[in-house]
Write a structure and sequence with these properties.
This protein has 243 residues and is of the alpha/beta class. Helix content is 46%, strand content 15%. It has 8 helices and 7 strands. Strand 2, helix 2 and strand 3 form a beta-alpha-beta unit. The two termini are 25 Å apart.
Length: 243
């Protein structure tokens, strides 16, 4: 397992929930962390402060990662503040529950842009540096919805399934360059997103409870440390989907 001390990570959507837990787990492993946010400045700055209190460098940076120019600006800002990006965690996402009758092209396009296009744009932005250094870790936060359809809607399932296919593509092309690309696919993790969805009930999970954000962060940390796992989907779902 690789020693991550002194590595630099960028976590999109890192201000709360799963993103926050990932930021803190990476920091505990010795990683300097850039906490990306779009709107929740105070939350992101609190996460960065907690990381610095643990002895690692951290910065909170605003950017809408669905927009290419903002992605380029974000990547440059991270490198200026913390150095080259070694670990990218594409966690930013939205889950807008809709019915089939209310699903329209606006919801579809916005979901694809925020959940899937952002991961592509961020990956393209950090890859030149990773390839030059011949070391990198890309972890995409998908969802069990990609495998079973889920409780949000086809737009969400499609965006998360696209992340898995995209990860396979990067993993196969980068396998000889010291760069891994993997997916973590959670189901019903105890976050604001789940608590706001009335269809999310713990009894739907075979283990009988919602997952904890720290359990997802553990999987991300394992993938960041392991250089022999690539192109895989790690399911953190309480048995909701078994592969």
């Amino acid at each position: 397992m690789d020693d991550l001390t002194g590595k630099c990570a960028l976590v999109t959507g890192g201000s709360r929930g799963i993103g926050r837990a990932i930021c803190l787990a990476l920091a505990a492993a010795g990683v300097d962390v850039a906490v990306n946010y779009r709107e929740r400045k105070s939350d992101a700055e609190a996460v960065a402060a907690e990381i610095r209190a643990r002895g690692r460098r951290a910065v909170a940076l605003a950017a809408d990662v669905a927009l290419e120019e903002e992605v380029k600006r974000l990547a440059a800002a991270v490198e200026s503040a913390l150095g080259p990006i070694d670990i990218l965690v594409n966690n930013a996402g939205v889950a807008w529950p809709v019915t089939l009758e209310t699903l329209d092209t606006r919801v579809w396009n916005d979901t694809i842009a925020i959940n899937l296009n952002s991961a592509f744009l961020m990956t393209q932005a950090v890859l030149p540096g990773m390839r030059a250094r011949r070391w990198g870790r890309i972890v995409n936060i998908s969802s069990t919805a990609a495998q079973v359809g889920g409780i949000v809607g086809p737009h969400y399932a499609a965006s998360k399934a696209g992340m898995i296919g995209m990860t396979h593509g990067y993993a196969s092309l980068l396998a000889g360059e010291g760069i891994t690309a993997n997916v973590v696919a959670p189901a019903m993790i105890d976050t604001d997103m789940i608590r706001s969805n009335e269809r999310a009930r713990p009894e739907r999970i075979p283990l009988g409870r919602f997952g904890r954000v720290e359990e997802v962060a553990d999987a991300v940390l394992m993938l960041a440390r392991n250089g022999y796992i690539t192109g895989q989907t790690i399911n953190v779902n309480g048995g909701f989907y078994m592969s």
